[in-house]
Automatic annotation (TrEMBL):
Residues 51-206 form the COR domain. It comes from Mytilus coruscus. It comes from the Eukaryota. Keywords: Repeat. This is COR domain-containing protein.
């Protein structure tokens, strides 16, 4: 009946169904029902819960897309929402709606500061904007301006903000001009364009006038950096090896972009070459330490290079950096799986971390499991270089020693009669897992009903543990001694675990022996925050506790930080501390407090000192 007409495209049912509208019991109706249900269940979003009230908004957005509106602002979105005859969504529901639409790939919306005021209705708009900057050389033919930009990008990996502005002023790209700031902010957020870190004389962040575009660099390292004098004695290395697949170039660009957003690029040699190359880069960690990253087809090799000798590389620094890079690699490879249309099974597990020998090229590898069986030193098979255990273990977080000193608090009567503070309780809750805390609080006299009520209400384990402990302490003044007895009676770990609750402040001792103790009195700046964040590694929660923030703050920060990016997480903790907690409590955000917290999470204070004051 409809053959040859445009309507055919809308016909999806194979069956021909004839309905007798006069017959109440017409069996064909069941057929229609079945067909519709089958079709619905075949839809990709089948099974996802979906509030009815989303539908009218979705229709409004589709209308806008049909009118070729690629981006709208949050203000416009709210207007559309409130102008609707059916009950409008609340602000919270609207965000849920946008995040849902984002998750199913219909639009782009990121609920983060600076980006949450715009909604990209047509994701291809962003891709087109991106392609106007990052493109293949053959698309620049006949366009001198773009060709020149391409040459600079392929050689140096940079593009000036002014050049983008001029490019988008051209008629062809005019459509990007209107929402320029948002499009650039998005590309920055997605690590396509990276803003280098720049500071004013007060160490506050300032906006640089150019971006890095790591994916565009075509040059290779010709500076002889890897062949420089005594390189072998100056570096330690690790490799992230992909067991199954070739590492896609896009993934290595993302990793280099990630590093560009944290550390600055090294300039090297008599011509001060910027060490950013094709899938390879050198970053400045501190005045005497560089990080060399080289991405190959099946592995990524990371080297820390000291200016004098590898034995000067501080252990805690190497392990914090490897933690941050491992989590970034994890995040990037997962993003890559999500965004790539082709089937690809790069998973976290397919990256194995191995130790590298110090040879500048074709290094030997040592798996971390084999480390214990090699004895005191490792003579690498291909080059015969000797590697001491001290340097080899630099990358690995060493387990804290369980032994206590002679004057350990558990044996000190005076200490045991004290009542723990809120900070002590938070530390205590971090020392045990949920099961151990359950045993502990029951031994401290909490009734099982109170525990099971808490257990049902609180799903965040860190909050649950702390709440349970706080309940015990609300009822009576529980002393350290009672905790010790409960730990012993419940046979939880060992009694000395609780010694970790009361670190003795040795930062003060450290400062006194120092020639300029006043240097720790400086106020934490943006630049400090950027520098310290990678040093905390995965000890984010412990660090937050040591800065005397509570678990609700942790919950909020952690919730905002949906992708596992350790550096960003640590940065939000430091920002939160400086701009909210310190302001609210009228505390001066001094480096001394940061140093103390850094030391209390078991990190080497000299790492921080070198980073900040050298
Ligand atoms: Zn249709
Ligand atoms: Zn070797
Ligand atoms: Zn002890």
């Amino acid at each position: 009946m409809f053959e040859g007409t445009a309507v055919t495209a809308h016909l999806v049912l194979e069956d021909k169904i004839f309905v007798n509208a006069k017959d109440k019991l017409d069996l064909e109706m069941t057929n229609i029902r079945k067909n519709i249900i089958d079709k619905a269940m075949a839809q990709p979003s089948w099974g996802q819960t979906f509030p009815k009230c989303f539908i009218p908004l979705e229709i409004e957005l589709i209308k806008l897309i049909e009118k070729k509106v690629p981006i709208i602002t949050m203000v416009q979105m709210k207007k559309i929402n409130s102008g609707h005859p059916i009950k409008p969504l609340t602000h919270f529901e609207l965000k849920v709606f946008l995040k849902f639409q984002h998750a199913i790939g219909k639009l782009l919306y990121f609920d983060v500061p600076n980006l949450d005021q715009h909604i990209i209705l047509s994701p291809t708009h962003l891709i087109d904007a991106f392609k106007s900057i990052v493109t293949d050389k053959r698309f620049c033919e006949g366009d001198k301006k773009r060709k020149d930009l391409w040459d600079v990008m392929s050689e140096k990996g940079v593009i000036s903000k002014q050049a983008i502005d001029e490019l988008w002023r051209q008629h062809k790209y005019h459509k990007f001009q209107k929402d320029k700031d948002h499009l650039l902010a998005m590309m920055n957020y997605l690590d396509i364009l990276v803003e280098p870190k720049r500071y004013d004389s007060q160490h506050n962040r300032i906006l640089p006038d150019f971006y890095y575009v790591a994916s565009m660099v075509r040059t290779t390292d010709y500076t002889g950096y890897l062949q420089s004098i005594s390189f072998m004695q100056r570096n330690i290395g690790i490799a992230f090896q992909s067991s199954s697949l070739i590492i896609p170039p896009a993934l290595s660009f993302r990793l280099i972009s990630y590093c560009l957003s944290i550390w600055s690029i090294k300039t090297y040699g008599e011509h001060d070459v910027n060490m950013l190359f094709h899938r390879c880069a050198v970053f400045v960690i501190d005045t005497s330490l560089d990080m060399h990253i080289s991405c190959e087809d099946d592995q990524i090799i990371i080297r820390l290079v000291h200016s004098r000798n590898r034995s000067f590389i501080l252990k805690d620094l190497a392990s914090s950096i490897s933690e941050c890079l491992a989590s970034a690699l994890n995040k990037i490879s997962q993003l890559y799986i999500k965004s790539s249309s082709e089937q690809c099974d790069i998973t976290t597990k397919s990256f194995e971390m191995k130790l590298c020998c110090s040879a500048p090229e074709d290094p030997c590898f040592l798996s971390i499991d084999d480390l214990s069986s090699i004895g005191g030193t490792w003579l690498c098979p291909s080059h015969g270089i000797e590697h001491g255990m001290y340097t080899l273990t630099s990358w690995i977080t060493t387990k804290e020693t369980e032994k206590c000193q002679l004057n350990c608090p558990v044996l000190n009567e005076e200490f045991l009669s004290e009542v723990p503070s809120a900070l002590h309780l938070r530390r205590l809750s971090l020392l045990f897992d949920v099961d151990e805390v359950r045993v502990l609080v029951i031994h401290l006299g909490l009734s099982y009903t109170v525990w099971s009520d808490l257990y049902k209400m609180e799903h965040e384990p860190e909050l649950l543990k702390f709440q349970a402990l706080r309940c015990c302490f609300e009822n009576s003044a529980v002393t350290f001694n009672e905790i010790r007895k409960a730990v012993e009676a419940g046979e939880i770990q060992n009694p000395h675990t609780i010694c970790k609750m009361c670190y003795i402040s040795s930062l003060d001792e450290f400062v006194i022996s120092d020639s300029q103790p006043e240097k720790w009195d400086i106020v934490l700046t943006d630049e400090h925050i950027d520098k310290i964040s990678p040093l905390i590694g995965k000890k984010s929660l412990q660090f937050l506790v040591e800065l005397e923030m509570d678990f609700h703050t942790w919950e909020q920060i952690n919730y905002r930080q949906t992708e596992r990016d350790l550096v960003a997480l640590n940065k939000s903790i430091l920002n939160e501390w400086k701009s909210n907690l310190c302001k609210a409590t009228n505390v001066r955000p001094s480096m001394r407090k940061i140093g103390q917290a850094f030391k209390n999470i078991g990190k080497d204070i000299t790492v921080l000192e070198k980073m900040l004051f050298c």
